[in-house]
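Predict the 3D structure for this chain.
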Amino acid sequence: MKSTFKDRLNEALYQRKMSAAELSKLSGVNEGAISQYRKGEYKATQRNLEKMAQTLNVSIAWLMGADVPMNPLNLVSPNITDDVVTFPVLGCIAAGYEEIMPPTVVNAASGYGTGQLPDKEGQMYHCNLDDLYLIPTAEVPVTNIYRDVILDEKQLPIKNCAYTQCFRREAGSYGKDVRGLNRLHEFSKVELVRIDKPEHSKQSHQEMLDHVEGLLKKLELPYRILRLCGGDMSFTAALCFDFEVYSEAQKRWLEVSSVSNFDTYQANRLKCRYRTAEKKTELCHTLNGSALALPRIVAALLENNQTPEGIRIPKALVPYCGFDMID
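Done. Predicted structure below.
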């Protein structure tokens, strides 16, 4: 039977011979919140998870219930890119998202369902022999889980996240601005997908924006948020915001996340519906966003944290990588 966060927290307190009051005093986490965590009545925030894991000297992944060693030293990664992956994935799980491991190859129907086809066919890698496509984003396979599905109103909102490789041809891109980590044919990304009732989708969109902004704040990166005009948005989206981080080396802003509300457009193509309490069938609203595009995040971390002693690691990543400076 898989251990839960509640089980792991109680086990850690028992092994460390520590009371909730002592954990609260040492970690700064409210004692009442710790009591709720121990009963399984409340989900811990990412900040509280980090504080408790550090105080208890356990890995965050273990505390979340993962099948990994308890001792954080066994999880220390010498590769900062691994830690930049772990940080947002666990942050998504702490925020109530269920992690999905989707395929990276999809059929044409999946691409049409989310709107990548036929609009972006020239940017997708096509496996001619089997008529399959490499995914440009995890949005495609994760959203298609709910194709031709009628959900119960009580199941909403659905919150999924996925870490995958993404593949894009970048046809027509050229020049110095697309070299290196700016434009890659293959890159890794953490994606958020939400499915909600129409009257709640605006709130869901704001929650996703707040979540992505929270990640960038914890990474201590200079960022800005752009609300896209109609001409810059995908034709499938009703409202879209881009997050950009500043590249000190290039002296320009680079997109690391795009968070969109698709209204009923994708749901209509996918026939993704829900049944109300009155037994009426309605179209869902679908939303998705990146959390985050990882190669550019790694570049921004290396560029924006240079000191005479070396490259400083943001405090939020230290529990994952086990060091605070790259010299």
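The longest helix spans residues 201-218.
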